[in-house]
Write a structure and sequence with these properties.
Blueprint lengths: L1 H23 L5 H7 L14 H31 L2 H16 L8 H14 L3 H17 L9 H12 L6 H9 L9 H22 L7 H22 L3 H29 L4 H18 L1 H17 L1 H15 L10 H6 L4 H15 L4 H11 L6
Length: 381
């Protein structure tokens, strides 16, 4: 309902502002450019796409995403059939059992949560959502008070929202489709931000739920991951700009290939039909890409109306002037729309990110920042 009201407000406000400009300030052609305008039209004073062209952009973007989503969801299917998810459950089980002390040993909800976190680790936020919903349903079965969220549900939701992300696949795919010079350059920032967010969520919820985080298993896990991230950051700081770009690309792309290798080897070791498993999962990737078309069309059209009416520019400039008055760096303001809408809807935030890339260019600071906002968190509401 919250997203519905926000979306409706976008459209209503944009049309009202455009009407004021048309009837009181003599901009008689503004309605025309809002509907059929093209950014590359020399006669278009707005230099922005209207709603018709925006619809085409949304569909074209989803078509480009089909391949990436099909690939990674196909690999997830191989990993699941080969027992990779069960293996991961056994590895992190001792750690999870301390964070979720109310969940009985061997309960299906643990597996569902592992699937959710695994999808988030690979940056497949659309795949993570159904696993998250399934995990919540499983946790609700053992919830003694059906009208109030249990401690386990609260902990899971907070960790899910932090969205611990190893490879922001969807963001990288979109940056590649927008012809970014280095689509993977947001990898390291995403990794750092999402790790800090996850640790913060775990500590705050553990404190509220009186979970002893000083247990050896929790301490070893947190310190081990922190040490890896810390060493990674220290090494990156020692590099120059060219070295950072080279190392980031090698690490992110190398990890993607390592995941491919481990999943395929695991499937062959377990003697499963890896190609059949891949096809089954890839079909879900195709369906997922198609399902997000309405969300992208809806949000990109609303954003297009805000931009072509001039409303968006007024709001962004107001925020920018406010921070400039305080003496702060204002470059982050253009990336804020993605951050503000991310808790409400992954599809809507994706639309905001794409709109930022199209407006400022895929290699701009604002576009990289919006990509980090998108890749380093997950939907909350």
């Amino acid at each position: 309902m919250a997203l519905s009201r926000i979306w409706s407000a976008f459209i209503i406000v944009a049309i009202v502002v455009a009407s004021v400009k048309c009837f009181f300030f003599g901009q008689s052609d503004i309605f025309n450019w809002m509907v059929i305008g093209k950014a590359d039209d020399a006669a278009n004073p707005l230099k922005l796409d209207g709603i018709i062209q925006t619809c085409w952009v949304a569909v074209e973007l989803c078509l480009k995403l089909i391949g990436i989503l099909a690939l990674f969801m196909g690999l997830m299917s191989i990993a699941e059939r080969a027992g990779g998810i069960r293996l991961l459950s056994r590895i992190v089980g001792p750690f999870f059992s301390k964070l979720f002390p109310d969940i009985p040993k061997g309960h299906p909800s643990m597996g569902h949560m592992i699937m959710n976190f695994s999808a988030n680790l690979l940056g497949l936020d659309n795949a993570a959502t159904p696993f998250g919903l399934k995990a919540m349903e499983s946790l609700q079965e053992i919830n003694p008070n059906k009208n109030v969220a249990s401690n386990a549900q609260i902990m899971f939701l907070c960790l899910h929202a932090a969205g611990l992300n190893l490879i922001p696949v969807s963001v990288i795919a979109i940056r590649a489709s927008q012809n970014a010079s280095n689509p993977t350059d947001i990898f390291i920032p995403c990794l750092i931000v999402t790790f800090v967010g996850t640790i913060a969520a775990m500590l705050i919820v553990s404190f509220k739920q009186k979970i002893n985080i000083l247990q050896p298993v929790i301490i070893i896990w947190v310190l081990s991951i922190s040490a890896v991230i810390g060493l990674l950051v220290l090494y990156i700081v020692s590099l120059n700009a060219e070295g950072i770009s080279s190392f980031s690309g090698m690490l992110s792309n190398g990890l993607i290939l390592l995941v491919f290798l481990l999943i395929i080897l695991g499937g062959l070791y377990k003697k499963i039909d890896v190609f059949d498993a891949f096809i089954d999962g890839a079909k879900n990737g195709f369906e997922t890409a198609i399902k997000i078309v309405p969300y992208l069309v809806g949000m990109l059209v609303a954003i297009s109306l805000l931009r072509t009416s001039g409303t968006f520019e007024v709001v962004i400039n107001a925020i920018k002037n406010g921070f400039a008055f305080l003496g702060a760096d204002t470059r982050f303001v253009e990336g804020l729309p993605t951050a503000l809408i991310r808790p409400l809807s992954g599809g809507a935030a994706r639309g905001m990110m794409v709109s930022t890339m199209e407006t400022y260019g895929p290699d701009s600071f604002a576009s990289r920042l919006s990509g980090i906002f998108q890749g380093a968190s997950d939907t909350t509401f």
